[in-house]
């Protein structure tokens, strides 16, 4: 039994036990001449955070020094983005969101997945410009101040890299949900409807496509159908209530809800209207889907219905047989999620899960299902259906239709194996 007369000591792993009342009072007395801090933790982008004041000292009337930007608890220091694969070149990088550690549907800004092709530019918003030209009546150059003066919109949407979930070639048994599905995040995006800016420049009737170009060293560029631009495209300057992070396109990015993530051009500097696609590098040699007959599908924009169980999932463990709640995320670029079914026997039988509010179009939806584990082996799967009636397919069905060389747009059903001892791993 712990000696309640002394402040608690860290355990073997360095984690302090919860303080006793006597320890709290002792800490309050020691604060009379200053502020006591505890160990460093994780910052918003995964770096070591400065020491922070224990929350229990706030009740003692002592002076408190809070960091100017709030930080996670040091006990959450393992919840960070992680690179999935070594970058092909030093300036390119990608890191995944730790889906298995998150709650609800919103991704914190510091954990939103990253994917960039040529580094992250440092852009002064006062010097940044967006030009809109091409098949327009009035070519215009906008400053950030100009854009901020337009009426704003705020909507919650997911963003997913089309290379998320490398299911065509298989995956490692040790992979977690962060490694299989982590190039996926969901945020509230705030900015100006692209249709508002197009009204200002007066798009001509023959304009059917828009070239969107970024200010990074790769000049990342994609062709966007005019119908999408006029529907729900956003010129976003804020994410989850604050201005965009540099790796998310500060000071301005395009957000195309439901489309593959590379089309939501970051560091947006140019929009050019034309009468046909612009056939950029990123839609010819890249981001096309190679089919078994040697041809390639092009302009496969929409991310189709998909889901993943985040608990229990790879790298986690069930402590003992008994009650658990299976939980996960489902989404569709075509609209809203209508139903999610869960199997605990590898797809032989299915039960319908509960969808947790809010259920929004082109947005992550959280699902839940009560489950009593009997201690034996189990294979957990989830299957999403969207409001168009599209049902998430099995991996075998995708391979039969598209072969193994596609590379992008894998949305097959994910399987997690639960061992009799409780360990959970990816099914290869």
From TrEMBL:
A GO molecular-function descriptor: molybdopterin cofactor binding
Key words of the record: Metal-binding, Molybdenum, Oxidoreductase
Protein name, entry field: Sulfite dehydrogenase
Lineage: Bacteria, Pseudomonadati, Pseudomonadota, Alphaproteobacteria, Rhodospirillales
Keyword Oxidoreductase: yes
Organism: Inquilinus limosus
Cofactor field: Mo-molybdopterin
Annotated coiled-coil segments of the chain: none
Family matches, as Gene3D superfamilies: 2.60.40.650, Oxidoreductase, molybdopterin-binding domain
